[in-house]
Design goal:
The complex is a heterotetramer of chains A (about 500), B (about 325), C (about 375) and D (about 325).
Chain B lengths: L2 H12 L5 H16 L6 H26 L7 H16 L6 H25 L4 H20 L9 H8 L1 E5 L3 E4 H19 L1 H11 L1 H6 L4 H27 L9 H11 L11 H20 L4 H26 L2
Antiparallel strand pairs in B: 1-2
Chain C lengths: L1 H18 L6 H12 L18 E2 L10 E7 L5 H14 L5 E8 L4 H14 L4 E5 L3 H14 L2 E4 L10 E5 L2 H15 L5 E6 L5 H16 L3 E7 L4 H14 L4 E4 L5 H10 L6 E3 L4 H10 L3 E2 L7 H14 L3 E2 L2 E4 L9 H4 L28
Parallel strand pairs in C: 2-3, 2-4, 4-5, 5-6, 6-13, 7-8, 7-9, 9-10, 10-11
Antiparallel strand pairs in C: 1-12
Chain D lengths: L17 H23 L8 H8 L3 H15 L7 H16 L6 H25 L4 H19 L9 H8 L1 E2 L2 E2 H19 L1 H11 L1 H6 L4 H27 L6 H4 L2 H11 L11 H21 L3 H20 L8
Antiparallel strand pairs in D: 1-2
Helix pairs in contact in D: 1-14, 3-8, 3-11, 3-13, 3-14, 4-5, 4-6, 4-11, 5-6, 5-11, 7-11, 8-9, 9-11, 13-14
Chain lengths: ~500, ~325, ~375, ~325
């Protein structure tokens, strides 16, 4: 093996009241993929931010090609050849692909003006590296592209800087399987070109597929280092300090599944067509599919956010047609949005207020906030206790809680409404392994208590493991159904088969 | 966020937090008393409260709109319209008061409804929507009166802004407007901090998308916030008309003062945080600043400068504190 | 930041007194004092047709033919005084057959807009005579000069820094206003009495001259001026200021540079339980009524709104080729005293109506002015 | 909801984007109304070339201010201090010139320096102290106005005839000031469209964090935008001093240049949230305002009714393209 491009030595970083990293050493070599794993809060992001110059370490050293470097600003690291792709897209939706790719380092003409022609040409060159992206017009407005293509642009942007080190922070979080494969291919290409890649992920499958070496962080320290990719169990044990035997809750036994809660026949709108869907009391139905297959659109249609324009929906035996989320909630549907921060939480309000939000929304505006028909503060506190939410006080702002605890507070919001159907969108996105198991068990408990659960996830093993039935969507239609425990390959094939033919 | 940060937050959170606006107010009042010992007499502080009443009521209403994420710039001209309209309608008839006042309150609510509808359904940002409303209402006030209001405000109407309740134990007398002030602020504070309305106003200002997906009737709550702001402006107009009689530019400048007062009270622009009591404190502090500068014999220009500096300093300080506590 | 503004400001202060309009001009003061005593020429009982000083100019050579289009660039109708005046004007226009079209553009109190308005009128090419009520003197001068090149111009209320207009219609002026009120106070209280002076705004020419004249007379008579405060013309603020002064000591007389907030000031005395002192107000109905009801010792100097009629009359004369007083048509500026009070109080009129409108005998009185 | 797969809301791939054309459509509508009113009232003389030029030149000061305001709004900030700054620079310049042609240059330099300082302070308070720009510039406005009125209460100083050329000079049939405005707009357009600085402005307004991570010194961009805005206000102040022959402490406030310039920019399609819009929209917005004024004058609309209509028009114009957006606004 060659000498490391990047070597971080004995890095320690303290925030007011928290020691985020202590004595962490880490290195990555040219032409390898180094997986960096660990629970949320283990220190991965802090380590990366030190590498990319967002934070400065309290002590320790960063060496690049053996020479000490000090990055005081993200630009410093960028100039040195380290390119970081963050979880949140950093694209400008109102600007073109080319403008985004060359953001902050636009080529210029002799007059000092931006050289638009050169920018366009170089954009085409860079995009040509990516199979799917070759057809992207450099002059397209990014906001008009779909999410997956945006992700490609995002990666292209990192590559186009000629980076020798690329950091990817959960790059597949927003991608489906097919897109993941495309991404993996891109990563392979980069590796072949001698780029060093630091790859942060929660997904064991990706580690197995991509990584050359693995470093596990736990509580701000290096818990384990593997020079070859070990069995997933070993990694998980290093991450959480124990095995997780019952990661997924057991599937529903036949007698637990009751009558129909939801039934859709011939549902459709601008994005969906011919949707036939049944969800029964006590069962968890998973929805799989590639990006844009219509899973979230289906959820939005059921929830009245972008309603069906045709077809019939019956909920608990009654024909219904919901035009707004409010109407859907009143009818007995609940929904946990996919993006907690932007769609789920009211961050500046307390944990309790977040939990009581929905029950209050259906009480009179003018009546007391402490008690309403669905809940009261005492019951809500009990519910929060029951779900073992870790908070100093339920009066504290919810923004200070971890992702898993935040998600539980949103679940509590729906529990008080006793919904007949509960839709989970990406319920475990950005949640650490321990909390994930908690969420799966919570879903199962809800189903046992009589609710129907519809779960949408881009994490294929999760859909297969947690759901009793898996429905596969493609191009706005439901194209296949699999029982619990189906093989990933089969599901994958169903999700992509036709589109491969089409392509 | 790691779980360990929670505990540190908890520690800073449990420290007794006094809203700095009360410290500011205390300092200002001390200054006033130093300059004018007569302030501790009922005439002194009651006059002060009477003077602050319209602004305090206005700020208490404005804080609803600010907390919900918007602005209401139309309140100043709404005040003018209420005073001018009252003079046109009462037309010197003392008996008219009994239907004119409810009508004016209704008009305040109506203006709030229109503001809310424009923001919610035409999707015009409230800064522009209420700016348009401000210009329109000002024009309406002139159009209605032809530029010179036609009637006097009868004493029955002016009762709320001008009269005193005498022979009150302890303080001697209480201006009616001060009673109105406490009742209105009390009700608005209760609505904001003890009812579903207040919680949902906070929620839609904090994250309207999440609130909508959680079932909050975002439009209804937002329109209600604008209605309360309009209502408070109508009440402020009735008090101002009562206090000082008819004129055609009573309300000008009040919209920015109301926003200033709310911000001094720690309300967060663009929504999510706001307290009616603190806005009330902000209004008192602002009035106290003016009073103090008057006693110091400082001219109007200096008052402007001081108001500007305090405004910036208050928000800068709040930002600094927020950064420190990480909340 | 602040220091630099202060520095530039200080620089401004050091320069301004040399060049700004002089608001305390002893010559102008004496001239207006004299004009107050002068016997005006013209028909008795119709002050809007009268003039002080006898110079006239011929207009026959301007060669206009009736009916002609008169264009009026108005600074604005943004206060009750201008509203009453504008009503006077529109009613007066109806009296003149020689005036065909009457085009009115309103600058809403902005110099920039008024300049643009005048340019629009000139570009439109419709006007035969132009009447201008300038928003400010200095700013409108170039625009008026341009208008003069195309047609006869009549300016009223505020003047312009050029003698190109046919005539400039205005009452005696600010010094006169200040003199009348202050002399009344001097006659009615003892030397050394406490006088409170209430002013609207700093910097407005007509108001500054009123103040300097009033101040001069009160100082010379040995009055103790307890304060001179700006009220912004705001009733609530006026009332608060007076209340604050009452907490500090007695007030024997109140002088005001404009009467808009006089009633609020009087109410401050009433509400605080004090006798109402000697008062200088203006000719607005609410003040006159209060004066009559409470039997005050008061006077109401005026800045008569009938000058708006005179401007139209001057335009008509220009069209008809008749001589007009020029270069200035100085109108009388009567003050309303106790003796004449009953003639001017009219409960049928709106509270903010200016009584010295010279409009009582006009056709649509009182309806057009908002009276019952 | 974005979720893992936001339903594709952009079915119309790179097709007709209304918000791009809205200002032009509005402008066309305003012009059509103007022509309609002129013809309906039988005053065809208002359709001459001279008159159209007069309309173009009606709101030059507003146009110059709005160009500056466009920059700050594009970076998701706002500037309420322009009106006071206009007054302050008009007074400052006129006092320094004081009728002497030799002092024109020092006066202009002093005014620009003052503007630079105000813009710098605004920018630093917004970026450094984290004060909401609305509050920061409102406070600044009060401070400037207070300092100004503490020293000057009327027209002060005077502008030499040579400087009046700025407002009154003509080049052939065109007023010099109009050509200047056009040149300024072109300059701003080039700056926004073809330079790195312009690209950075859109980046900062569109996604501040992304811009920062791309190595853009975001604070510097915001501060610079504020400086540009203030300098534009200074130019508007100089123009007004030239036009009014002197400066007075109320000319900015009387023209309501703060709120009107914001309204012009927003009507021109620049979004208050930043990152989208441009100079030509703003110019269209300015023309719409001029046309509205002219329509009112030609139609002889009562000045009170004018206000009512103007308020409604501002809201309606913004609603014209905001109404179809799905975003929740507050």
């Amino acid at each position: 093996m060659t000498t490391p491009v990047i070597e971080m030595k004995a890095i320690t970083k303290t925030f007011p009241g928290v020691r985020a990293l202590s004595d962490v050493s880490f290195d990555v070599r040219t032409g390898e993929v180094q997986a960096l794993v660990g629970e949320n809060g283990a220190g991965k992001s802090t380590l990366i931010k030190i590498l990319s110059g967002v934070y400065q370490a309290d002590s320790g050293a960063v060496l690049m090609n053996g020479k000490a470097v000090h990055f005081r600003h993200p630009v410093d690291s960028l100039r040195a050849g380290i390119s970081t792709i963050y979880q949140e897209f950093s694209l400008l939706p109102e600007r073109t692909v080319a403008q985004n790719l060359f953001l902050g380092r636009e080529p210029r003409t002799r007059l000092g003006l931006i050289d638009a022609a050169k920018m366009r040409d170089e954009t085409k060159e860079v995009l040509a590296l990516f199979a799917a992206a070759g057809r992207i017009d450099p002059d397209r407005i990014v906001g008009e592209l779909d999410v997956a293509t945006q992700q490609v642009v995002e990666i292209a942007k990192a590559v186009s800087t000629g980076a020798r080190v690329v950091v990817m922070d959960e790059p597949t979080a927003a991608l489906n399987e097919a897109e993941c494969e495309e991404l993996f291919a891109t990563v392979d290409t980069l590796r072949e070109r001698g780029v060093a890649i630091i790859y942060i992920t929660h997904r064991m499958r990706e580690i197995a597929r991509l990584a050359d070496r693995v470093t596990v962080l736990k509580d701000g320290e290096v818990a384990a280092r593997f020079d070859e990719v070990p069995a997933p169990n070993e990694i998980v044990r290093a991450m959480v300090g124990r095995d997780i035997a019952d990661f997924y809750a057991p599937p529903a036994s036949p007698d637990e599944v009751g009558g129909l809660v939801l039934s859709v026949r011939g549902g459709g709108n601008a994005v969906l067509d011919g949707i036939d869907l049944d969800v029964r009391r006590g069962e968890i139905v998973g929805l799989a599919g590639i990006q844009g297959a219509g899973r979230v659109a289906l959820a939005r249609a059921l929830f009245g956010d972008a309603p069906f324009e045709r077809g019939d929906v019956t909920l608990d035996g009654d024909a219904v047609s919901f035009g707004t989320p409010r109407a859907a909630i009143l009818g007995g549907i609940g929904l946990l949005p996919g993006d907690r921060k932007s769609e789920g939480l009211v961050l500046m309000q307390s944990v309790r207020d977040n939990g009581m939000l929905t029950s209050r929304a259906f009480a009179s505006l003018w009546s007391s906030d402490r008690r309403n028909a669905h809940s009261d503060t005492v019951r809500m506190d009990g519910l929060l206790d029951h779900m073992e939410i870790r908070a100093a006080s339920y009066d504290q702002d919810i923004r200070a809680l971890s992702g898993g605890n935040q998600q539980k507070a949103i679940v509590a919001r729906w529990l008080s409404m006793r919904p007949k159907l509960l839709i989970f969108i990406e319920p475990t996105r950005g949640i650490d392994v321990n909390s994930k198991a908690g969420i799966y068990h919570l879903m199962r408990d809800l189903a046992r208590e009589g609710a129907g659960i519809l779960m949408i996830s881009s994490d294929l093993p999760e859909v297969i493991g947690a759901a009793d039935r898996v429905l596969v969507m493609q191009a706005g239609r439901i194209v296949a159904e699999f029982p619990h425990g189906a093989s990933e390959q089969d599901v994958m094939h169903a999700a992509t088969a036709e589109s491969e033919v089409a392509a | 966020m790691s779980d360990r940060t929670e505990t540190t937050h908890a520690r800073t959170r449990r420290l007794p937090q006094i809203n700095p606006v009360w410290l500011l107010l205390a300092a200002l009042v001390a200054g006033i008393i130093l300059m004018n010992p007569g302030f501790v007499e009922p005439t002194g502080y009651m006059n002060f409260l009477k003077r602050a009443a319209p602004l305090a009521i206005l700020a208490a209403g404005q804080v609803y709109v600010i907390t919900s994420g918007g602005f209401d710039l139309s309140v100043g001209s709404l005040i003018t319209l209420v005073v001018v309209g009252s003079s046109m309608l009462t037309n010197n008839d003392p008996a008219a008061t009994y239907w004119v006042i409810p009508l004016m309150l209704g008009m305040g609510l109506g203006v709030g409804v229109v503001n809310g509808l424009v923001v919610c359904f035409l999707r015009v940002p409230s800064l522009i929507a209420t700016l348009g409303m401000m210009i329109t209402l000002n024009g309406l006030a002139f159009l209605w009166s032809g530029g010179a209001p036609r009637g006097y405000l009868p004493d029955t109407y002016r009762f709320f802004g001008r009269e005193l309740v005498r022979d009150v134990p302890l303080v001697g007398f209480i201006p009616v407007s001060v009673i109105v002030l406490f009742v209105v602020v009390g009700i608005l504070a209760w609505l904001m901090h003890r009812t579903n309305l207040g919680r949902q106003v906070h929620a839609i200002g904090d994250n309207p998308v999440a609130a909508r997906l959680a079932g909050v009737a975002v439009n209804r709550v937002r329109i209600t916030a604008f209605m309360l702001s309009g209502l408070s402006a109508a009440i402020a107009g009735i008090l101002l008309g009562g206090f000082a009689g008819v004129s055609t530019d009573v309300g000008s400048g009040y919209e920015l003062q109301a926003i200033t007062a709310a911000v001094l009270g720690g309300a967060q622009l663009l929504g999510g945080r706001g307290s009616v009591f603190a806005a009330f404190g902000g209004a008192l502090a602002l009035t106290a600043i003016f009073t103090l500068l008057n006693f110091l014999g400082l001219p109007q220009p200096v008052r402007q400068v001081v108001q500007g500096l305090i405004l910036i300093a208050a928000v800068a300080l709040a930002m600094h504190r927020r950064k420190q506590t990480g909340t | 930041m602040k220091r630099i503004l202060m520095a530039t400001g200080a620089f401004a202060v050091s320069v301004v007194p040399l060049h700004a309009q002089n608001f305390d001009d002893p010559q102008e003061f004496a001239k207006q004092q004299e004009q107050l005593q002068a016997e005006p020429m013209g028909p008795e009982g119709q002050p809007w047709l009268q003039h002080i000083g006898g110079e006239m100019t011929e207009t026959a050579d301007l060669g206009l033919e009736a009916p002609a289009t008169v264009c009026f660039s108005n600074a604005g109708v943004n206060n009750p005084w201008r509203v009453v005046g504008y009503t006077n004007m529109m009613q007066e226009v109806a009296n003149h057959e020689s005036i065909g079209d009457f085009v009115h553009v309103d600058a809403e109190g902005s110099d920039d807009k008024q300049i643009a308005d005048i340019n629009d009128l000139l570009a439109g090419g419709d006007c035969d005579v132009m009447i201008v009520s300038p928003n400010t003197t200095a700013a409108l001068t170039p625009a008026v000069e341009r208008a003069c090149e195309d047609m006869p111009v009549i300016v009223f209320d505020r003047g312009v820094n050029t003698d190109c207009p046919v005539t400039f219609v205005h009452p005696i002026g600010g010094y006169g206003f200040g003199i009348q009120g202050a002399e009344f106070i001097v006659e009615n209280v003892d030397e050394g009495s406490n006088v409170l002076m209430l002013r609207i705004l700093p910097g407005v020419d007509v108001l500054e001259t009123r103040y300097s004249a009033g101040r001069r007379i009160l100082d010379e008579a040995g009055m103790n001026i307890v304060g001179a405060e700006f009220t912004d013309g705001d009733n609530a603020k006026t009332k608060s200021i007076v209340e604050d002064y009452l907490m500090r000591g007695d007030i024997d007389a109140v002088w005001m540079d404009a009467g808009a907030t006089a009633v609020a000031a009087i109410e401050a005395f009433e509400d605080s339980g004090y006798e109402i002192p000697v008062f200088v107000g203006e000719d607005q109905q609410d003040f006159l009524r209060k004066w009559q009801d409470e039997d005050l010792t008061a006077i109401a100097p005026t800045y008569p709104t009938f000058q708006w009629r005179t401007a139209v009359i001057a335009a008509a004369r220009v069209i008809e080729g008749e001589p007009v007083p020029a270069p200035e048509w100085v109108l009388p500026q009567p003050a309303i005293t106790q003796d004449e009070l009953a003639d001017y109080v009219n409960p049928a009129m709106p509270p903010l109506h200016y009584a010295m409108c010279g409009c009582e005998s006009m056709e649509n009185y009182p309806d057009a002015w908002g009276g019952n | 909801m974005s979720g893992s797969e936001g339903a594709p809301p952009h079915k119309t791939k790179s097709g007709f984007r209304l918000e791009r054309w809205a200002p032009l459509i509005l402008l066309g509508g305003a012009f059509a109304i103007y022509v309609g009113v002129v013809l309906a009232t039988g005053q065809a003389q208002y359709l001459t070339f001279d008159n159209l030029i007069a309309i173009l030149g009606r709101s030059i000061a507003l146009g110059i201010t709005a160009i500056g305001q466009t920059f700050v709004i594009l970076v998701a900030s706002i500037d309420l201090s322009v009106a006071s700054l206009i007054s302050a620079t008009a007074v400052l310049a006129s006092v320094i010139m004081d009728g002497s042609p030799a002092m024109i240059l020092p006066a202009v330099l002093a005014a620009v320096a003052l503007g630079g300082l105000v813009g710098l302070t605004n920018g630093l308070v917004v970026t450094g102290l984290g004060v909401n720009p609305l509050i920061a510039t409102l406070g600044m406005s009060l401070i400037i106005q207070g300092c100004l009125s503490a020293f000057v209460s009327n027209f002060a100083g005077s502008v030499p005839a040579e400087f009046q050329v700025f407002a009154y000079g003509r080049l052939g049939p065109f007023p010099l000031a109009l050509l200047f405005l056009l040149a300024l707009a072109c300059l701003a357009w080039i700056l926004l469209r073809f330079t790195k600085f312009g690209s950075d402005i859109y980046a900062v307004g569109g996604n501040e964090e992304a811009a920062r991570f791309a190595g853009i010194k975001t604070r510097r961009i915001v501060v610079l935008s504020h400086v540009i805005c203030s300098v534009c206000a200074v130019i508007a102040g100089l123009y007004l001093a030239s036009r009014l022959r002197s400066g007075a402490p109320w000319i900015g406030a009387d023209g309501v240049y703060d709120l009107e310039s914001i309204a012009v920019v927003v009507i021109g399609g620049t979004v208050l949230a930043g990152g989208r819009g441009g100079i030509w929209g703003t110019m269209a917005g300015m023309l719409i305002f001029s046309l509205i004024d002219s329509v009112f004058n030609v139609a002889g609309v009562d000045s009170f009714a004018k206000q009512v209509l103007r308020g409604i028009i501002i809201v309606a114009a913004v609603a014209f393209y905001a109404a179809r957006s799905k975003r929740i606004v507050a």
